[in-house]
Amino acid sequence: MTSLTNDSRPLPDRPNPRSKAMFVFLRLASASPQAYTALYDIGPFWFSGTSTDTQLNVYVSDKHYQIELSASNFEDSPTLLSEYLRHIERVDPENFKADEEEEESGDPLEDLHEWALTPFLPVFQTVFPLDRTRKYTLKDWLSAETLRYTLVIVEGKLSPSKLDPLEGRSIGASFAPSERAIYSAFPIYRPDEVRLPIDEDSRGLPAIPHKVFVSGHVQFFKLVFPGDVNSTLREFNAYTKIRSAGLDSSVRTSKLDGVVEDNGRVIGLLLSYIDSKVGTLLCVGKDPAYSSFRQKWLDQISHSLNSLHAHNILWGDAKPDNVLIDTNNDAYLIDFGGGYTVPWADGKNENKIEGDKEAFEKIRDFLLKEDDPPHSSHLP
Question: Residue ranges of the Protein kinase domain (predicted)?
């Protein structure tokens, strides 16, 4: 199971385009039925492009359920095996070809989670809810008990089966003293200094903490994992340059406000919180309801990118996913960890200014090609 991990690692910000694995993160904010949203919060979903093994991660109260599924568990029931394989087929249409004539509705990930998690509802209902009288912190999330399960066939029905526990999740990256000096100028915080907001109707800790509070100020928390050393170093370098450059407010980028450390490991980054209701440019860039903003967004991206390049700062993995649209409908460049994503770049100019320019041209086409307005925005 090369593409699945034994920890519950979340969706990487920079998936390797050369890897056959696909990583999907689903929050159940818009899922149905509504009862599910009150009972659990869905975290990372992993599956392999080379097998039918999958891993679901569910958070109930302060418990983390790691559910590992395999087609071999369903071989005693051809019907359930067929249902499982069909769900995997729909989740990854690139690797599993669906019948072209068959019309299906509904979100594939939501459908898979509903199918797999329904047998667990009696298990989840036994967990005590969160204590509303206390304030939860990142330390509580890091120390959440992980319970491993799978699904098996019992009397022709799906039934939860508990697996042996693992030692724990691998979170945080270690840096050499010389590397640590790169980010030592930024404030360092402990996990217990980072508060997690808990909604009144939420029964569990957030599947992946993002919106957090430090000393009463809202921040965006970005998790760091052992394999993220190089990309995190690129982010430290970029954010250090951004801060030193003294760029004005017309240059819209995320900014590093602090670092979270635990036992000598960098657990995550505290970034400026960009309030967004619509998500990234990928979500709304082709939406007719936002067509009047396309030229504005392109101009803002062009201006920000030109300003960064003037100070020898790379964006890196330039793509619509890494442009966040805030509540004022302004476009912010986010994620300075480097890399590239097909089709926005082909990798020949990875982590180079030329790569940023190549991706910008693709972003421009993404926004404007269909309507074919004047291409006033440009990179030199």
Answer: 160-380
**Sign of the torsion formed by the C-alpha atoms of 12, 13, 14 and 18:** positive
Annotation: CATH topology of 281-368 = Transferase(Phosphotransferase); domain 1 (1.10.510)
Task: Give pLDDT tens digits for 230-281.
Answer: 999 999 999 999 999 999 999 999 999 999 999 999 999 999 999 999 999 9
Residue ranges matching CATH 1.10.510.10 in the chain: 281-368
Contacts 24+ apart (CB under 8 A), 125-130: 125/39, 127/60, 127/61, 127/63, 128/61, 129/61, 129/203, 130/61, 130/62, 130/198, 130/202, 130/203, 130/204, 130/205
Is-contact 317 338, C-beta < 8 A? yes
DSSP character at residue 320:
G
Mean per-residue pLDDT, 130-146: 91
3 state DSSP class of 222:
strand
Q: Please report, for residues 143, 160, 253, 317, 357, the alpha-carbon distance to residue 336 in angstroms, rounded to integers and kept in the order given.
A: 29, 41, 10, 7, 15
Find out whether 237 and 182 touch, Cβ atoms under 8 Å. Answer: yes
- 299-330 pLDDT tens trace: 999 999 999 999 999 999 999 999 999 999 99
Q: Express each pLDDT in 40-53 by its tens digit.
A: 888 888 887 678 99
Virtual torsion, Cα 170, 176, 180, 181, nearest 10 deg: 180
Tokens of 331: 């476009």
Euclidean distance between CA atoms 307 and 190, whole angstroms = 34
List strand residue ranges (DSSP E) for the chain, in order: 22-25, 41-47, 54-60, 63-69, 145-154, 157-162, 188-189, 194-195, 211-214, 217-223, 256-262, 265-272, 323-325, 331-333
CATH class of 177-272: alpha beta
Q: Indicate where the chain has its CATH 3.30.200 domain(s).
A: 177-272
Of 372, 348, 375, 378, the C-alpha closest to 360 is 378
Contact 379, 302 (CB under 8 A): yes
